[in-house]
Each structure stands twice: as structure tokens, then as C-alpha cells.
């Protein structure tokens, strides 16, 4: 593929609800430019964008793909993103390197949850955008109804730049309202254009001209004076309005048949901003000095890695955008924040899974490189003598978790590295070892997201994992002081074992942890050398508490007396005595089971607020506040983690996929007695079964 200057680039991210036709549109663009001799189909698993095995199996996009094509001397870098909410991390990565968004909307379903969420992602980065009402050949397609719904839902001047010629099975093409030109589908002729469209076209064109003139003082004066604006002047006004998010143009197409796709591509080139039109990014030098980096090929080199793919054969593949400067292959660069040097070998243009060799990329362009040793997603490559770190993308907190365990002993050795590779590939996936339950926890955005991660680990790295619902990481503590003693005495014929420990146990404030004190022991009742043995015995029960086997927190143990034997007292005797007296006193000190309570923020359409409140009541939730904004209701609440393990699934069911939430640990609270009884009984049963095995 040829080298393109910054002003000839268009980086467009496709946004939309699942099945709005994003992947099919990218395929149609490749077909239109002659890259493909025939269009692939999502249903057949033959598209360029959905090359991942899981995407083919599921018949949905599961990862962001780069689909570049050359069109009229420009390079269109189309970033195809998943519409399914579980893969929001992929969408955010693609949005972070785009200069504009194209929001695809179904002409029957209209504005859907994916439309609203995608629009919000574009808002977060203040990206200019256009709307494509796709699938205009669907039965019951209604352009004007959907246009009205878009205007009700979103802000900005939403104005058509094209009108459809017919709808549904009668869809024949589109009319360009600036050039006043018809783009007809295959086999259609001018006779297919209804004569009744003439008045609709004139009205829409007048509305378009008014929108284009409003953002330009010279144009508005000319328009108000009754002078006609030229096509060039209309284009100039529209470009300015689109660039500052005042105007959102609307197009229409049927990507499966290719009707309107060429007209769309011409409009994207004409109206969407190039990287040079976007504001400069602010980067930081290693000394924290800030510097503006406009998209200039002659500027200092700064390359941002926005996506990483772990390939079992090729190794790590990094996808990047050149923020500033010109990126050449066969070079050495510094990677920040690690500070390590990277040897850059062959760079390439990524088109789906295809890798087209390239020699250089100008500022604003998007490409790929293999086998970077220490550079991960969100890292910056630059020259060592002039290095920068670009702002890192913040991914949402995981909402859904599973406990994973290896199927075989061979899988056990490979599990940790495989989990790390998957988390490196997808920053919205994370994993950790939960000390309180002894489980390895894999977290992500939803059930499908984690199922995909587990399948990828098996397919790519040969690691078989089983998944279960995670145990809640309960903790154990006490509510009052108690004192007792334990004497350990054992005679085995030779040297025996003897140790006696008197201990008082006291509750500590939340977050204090564990304290051990021997200052109350007087008169040499216990030698100082045995104090560490007693503490060791006590600590052996902290990880698995006496109540239900969960970690013990916020207790103070004070040894105040004891006895020794001149021959039989030894380390092991006082370890056992310390362990047993701790168990006795703990169970006598009002033991309590503590559970993690989460801060939850739920955002849903207002009509679902009642259902959400009722559901939270059944989950022992305590509502902290409610507010309404832009047709959305926001509920903040504190809810026990035990009641939120599968909330990602339940919320989608309650709100038909239109709700979302965030969640983080707030504090620990005592578990209600009637619930704690069941948890303790189950823990005892599990211990018995484990001992029998």
C-alpha cells in the first residue's frame, strides 16, 4: 500500500448496536475499491474484519479490526468495533485512535442501547461524528421515523446529507443533497426516482444549507442576503460544523448490496476531519514536563500502542497510531513507561489478519508491528533522545468474575502465563489470586467476554480451564473481649511436650489487622524465647479462621500468663498451645462473619427505575441516592458482593440491555445471623468432604 500524507488520512471508527452492519459495511468498502472481488458474509465467516475464530463461530465481532482502503487518493482507516457490550474494551481502544465516528443505525429498530453507549464513547473523546442509517433495504425500513428518533435522543444539528430513493424492497439508491446527484444501485435507472421526491429533496437541501451557513459569519450573511451558496461553500460550512461537533450529518445505505456505499465513502473523504484537523495531544516527558504534539509528519516521533494481540506462532503483535513524526521500520526506540529499548523490525499495514509490508507511516496513520519485547497496550514509543509518554486509556472496571482452575496438572503450570497473556491482549480482562478463598479469579465485562477469554487460552496456548462461580471472600472477626487458656501436654515415652498459654483476645477498629502482645507476662512464667512460637501458632489460624475457615481480621491477642516445664517445653509445644488457645478465645469473643459491601452506581432509562429499586431491595441493597439526567436514571447504592455476583446478566435482563453499572469495594459489614448460619454450615460440610477425600 502506498504512503499517505497526514492530510490524506481519514481514521473512522464504526460504532453501533450489534447487527447494525458495521462489519458488512467495511467489507462493502473493500469491494468498492477493488480490494475484494466478492463481498464476504458475516453469516459465512468470510469477512475481512471478523477473522478471529471466535468471531466466526459466534457470528459477531469480538475484537476491533483495522480495515484500510485507498479511495480517490486518500486512505480510509476504518476501525470496525464489536457491538456487543461485553467487548467495550475493544471499542474504547479503537475510539482512542480515531478522528471521527460513524454511528450505524438500523432503519427498523432505530436508536438502540448500543447506539447510545457508542455515542457516549464518542462524547468522552469529543470526536466529530456522522450517522449512517444502514440496511435501508430491510422490510419496514423508515428513514424519516429513525431521523426523528435520533433528533429526540441526541444533541447537535442532525441533518441529512442524503435522502434514500425508496425504502425496504423499493430502495434503489441515494440522492446527494449537495451535488444534487443520484447514486443508483445496480440495475436501477433514473425512472426509479419517484417524482414526489422533488419537494422532499428541496426541503432537505434548504435545511442543509441553513445548517452549513450557521457556523460561518460570511456564509450566514450571504445566505440571509438571499444569495445562493455554492457547493464549495456548503461543503466548507459543513466541514467546520462537523469538526466542532455542531453538525451531525446523516447518510443512508444498504451495505449488503452496496447501494449508497460509494456515496458514503466520498462524503467521508469530503467532510470528515483528517488527523491534521484534530487538536494536538498533550504528552509528558520523563521529567513530567508537558508538550503539545500536533499530527505533523515533521514533528518529534510519538507512537501510541492501542491494541495488542498474542499470537502463538508470530508472537506479540502491536497495533499503533503514529501521533507525531514519521515512523520507519528497522529502527530503535524507547518504550515508556518501562524505559526499555525496542528493536523495530518490519512494520506493516494491518487489514484484518493480513499484514501488508510498509516502509513508513506519517503522523495520524495506523499500522502494526510484531515482536515488541516489553511494550504493551497504552505504551508509547519514541526516540530516546526525545521521549514522551502519551495519555493512557482508562478501561472500565470489570463487572463479572469467575473462579478458574486447571483441568490437569499440565494445565496448572501453564495457567498463570496464559492468564497474563490474555490480560495483556485485552486490558478489560484481569486476574488475581484471592487469598481469602484460595481461588484464582478471572474478571471481565460479562459472561460472554470471559467465556471467550477461556476459549482463547485453550486455542492459543493449550491451557484447559474450568470455571465456577467465585466464593465470596468473607472475613472473620470478633465483637467483644474474651480470655481463656490452653495446656498442651504430650508424653511419648521419651522427651514429652508441654506448654501452657493464657490469652485474652480483643476486637480492634476496622482495618487495624492483627496485633500480638506479650507485655503482660511477668516473673518469667514463659521464657521470651517461646513468645515467637506462640505467635506463630496464633498466626497459623489467621488465614483459616475458627468460625468458617475465612481470614481473621482486626483482633489483638494479649498473652498474660502461662507455664513451662524445664525439660518438655519446646517450640512445637507452645505453637500448639498458642493455636488452640486462640481458637478457644476467638469462639468465645462473639465471633462474626464479615462480607464485602460494594459501592454500586447503576445507570438505566428512567422507565426502569422502579424495577431497579425493587430488585435492589431483594439484594439487601441500601440506596444512597437517585438522580435523573437526559432521560436516564442514576441509582447509587451499597450492596453485598454476595448479591451482585451475576448482576451483569440480571441487569441486562431487567433493562433489555439498556442499563449499565460500575462497582467497587466499599467496606466490610457483619453478615446477618440467619445468612451467616448457612454459610458456616456449608463451610463445615466442605471441610468434612475435603478431609474425606
What this model shows, in words?
This protein is an alpha+beta fold. The chain folds into five domains: 6-277, P-loop containing nucleotide triphosphate hydrolases (Rossmann fold), CATH 3.40.50.300; 281-382, Translation factors (Elongation Factor Tu (Ef-tu), domain 3), CATH 2.40.30.10; 400-471, 2-Layer Sandwich (Alpha-Beta Plaits), CATH 3.30.70; 476-589, Ribosomal Protein S5, domain 2 (2-Layer Sandwich); 594-674, Alpha-Beta Plaits (2-Layer Sandwich), CATH 3.30.70. Helix content is 28%, strand content 32%. The protein contains 16 helices and 35 strands. The strands form eight sheets. Strands 17-16-22-13-14-21-18-19 form an eight-stranded antiparallel beta sheet. A seven-stranded mixed beta sheet has the order 2-3-1-4-5-10-6, sandwiched between helices. Strands 27, 32, 33, 34 and 35 form a five-stranded antiparallel beta sheet that branches. α4 (113-124) links the parallel β4 (100-105) and β5 (129-133). α6 crosses α8 (231-243) and α10 crosses α11. The longest helix is centred in the last third of the chain and has 20 residues, at 673-692. It is elongated, with a radius of gyration of 32 Å. The mean pLDDT is 93.
